[in-house]
Amino acid sequence: MYGDRTGSNEPVTFSEEQEWMESTERQEQAGMTHEPSSGPSVNGILSRVRELQPDLPPKAKQIAELIIAQPESFIHMSITEVAEACGVSEGTTVSFCRRVGVRGFQELKILLARDLIEPVRLIQEDLHRGDDPATVTDHIFAAHAASLHETRRLLSMESLAKAASLLREAQRIEIYGIGSSAPIAQDLSYRLLQLGLAAGAVVDSHVQAVSAGMTGPTVTTVTVSHSGSTVETVLATRLAREAGARTIGITRLGKSPLAAHCDVLLYTVANETRYRPEAMSSRVAQLAIIDTLVSCCALTDTERSVDRLQHAARILSEKRF
Question: Which of 105, 162, 216, 271 is most exposed, with minimal Cβ within 10 Å?
Answer without folding.
Answer: 216
